[in-house]
Specification:
The protein is an all-beta fold. The chain has one helix and 36 strands.
Length: 431
Amino acid sequence: MPASPSLLIVPARFKTGKLYTQIATTSAGVVLGSSGDFNVTRATTATRFNSAGLIESVASGVPRLDYYTSGGTAGCPALLVEPSAQNSALQSEDFTTTWAATNIVVSGNTTGTLDPYGTNLADLLTATASGSSRVVQTFNFVSGTTYTYSCFAKAGNGFFGMTMENGGVASGVAVIWNVSTGAFSVSGSVGSGYTLQAHNIENYGNGWYRCSMRVLLGSTVTGNIRVNTSNGTMSSVVVQSDNGNSVNVFGAQVETGSVATSYIPTTTGSVTRNADVINLSGAVSGCIGQTEGTIYAEFEYKTNIAERRLIALSDNTTTNRVFAWTLNNILYVQVQGTSVIVANPISAGYHKVAFAYQQSGVSGTLFASLDGGAVVSGTTAGTFPSSLTAINVGKNETTGTSSFFWNANIRSAAIYTSRLTNAELIALSTL
């Protein structure tokens, strides 16, 4: 780094309710000790991808150090920060129960095929006839709502398909993936009321892929979610299968919003995971530059249109604030009410941003570089912030469990009490 930060977070050491910082000093060089450690609140259990390359549950209040990489292998830990989410798909790990089978045999808890937990909770679906072979669960869809439907799949003999439809397949959407290669195969839609906005496939290692589809509902209807064996083709949105096609499945999840969040297991009812609240206030005000400073973060971005906060300095209100945020796949930095666009659009994946602010009279200037790119700048309107006393990571600048939570991993963050030069901002943010 081009200078010594007053605060540095590289997620590594933690305990229930705490995330330890590597550096936390005042602008005068006074070590803050435990007062520089972040408070972590989450009132429910949650899952992460651990250092062994498996999904595991962590207790309430425990920071989630997530080791997931795009190749499905464990990498360096990052801090997983997510909003509250609810999995409304029932029996997410048991397709022999709530799921109604047609032209298919469901073999529960198959031995010899480890699930993403590293246990034997996965089910094997095997088609018993050609045509549509599926397991189906009834679902109540609400008009105007965006749903993300996801499921883990591992290759058997054939392809893997997922469908959302109105109960008679007069309207719906479907996607098929080749889970032998981890590639998208084909998608389709029919009728009105279901708009397929996006689909995705992520490698979780050991042959497992998490497949997902994002769908906007145009009408309120009692419909279905389907999991299908497939030969790689569909008729309208009816996923087709040959007799004997098979696929291993695990962890079905339906949630509102545009991102497939970390896995939430269910049995007979919906289950909610609370948001990750990570913040620091009080004695830490001395390590925040009050008239000038710099904020740095290395972070993962997942494509979505919702407003998200990456990191925010404030007095726990919206009166005085300096922060980085996204909306509609645009990355902004902001001081008080003035924003500067740093990237439009910002691509999915990992990035580094360095963002400086500096007072000039009652207003000020702000500067930012993303991934070592040219510095963009702007001039704030009105009064410059004063009395910055709090740091929020992955949430908005006010107290409590407010909205705008980040929805991905944050690898590191740092704060400087001085405005770094443009050259230093570029060097700091270079990937």
